[in-house]
Write a structure and sequence with these properties.
0% strand; elongated; mainly alpha
Length: 91
């Protein structure tokens, strides 16, 4: 006789995406883009003078990148899975 194994299933919030999970997903992606873009500007400014861009130039570049991510996530809701910030269906 075989012993039944437990099955670990994902939580309902992972499987059933709601407007709340979409908003959290989009906010996380937008914030992550801003942080990565700010770091990228600081590094791309040059190895010898890494921080030659002013604080406001760095924040402007990060804001532009984050705005692009925000618009892409909003488009994903319209054209991709309804409650996902991904353009891929079912993600």
């Amino acid at each position: 006789m075989s012993v039944p194994h437990s099955i670990d299933l994902p939580g309902a919030e992972t499987v059933v995406k709601t407007a709340k999970t979409y908003a959290r997903d989009l906010a996380e992606r937008t914030l992550a883009t801003a942080v990565v873009a700010a770091g990228g500007v600081a590094i791309a400014a040059g190895p010898g003078d890494m921080f030659s861009a002013s604080f406001w130039e760095t924040m402007a570049a990060a804001g532009i990148a984050a705005a692009g991510t925000l618009l892409k996530g909003m488009a994903a809701r319209a054209f991709g899975a309804k409650n996902s910030a991904s353009l891929a269906k079912g993600v």
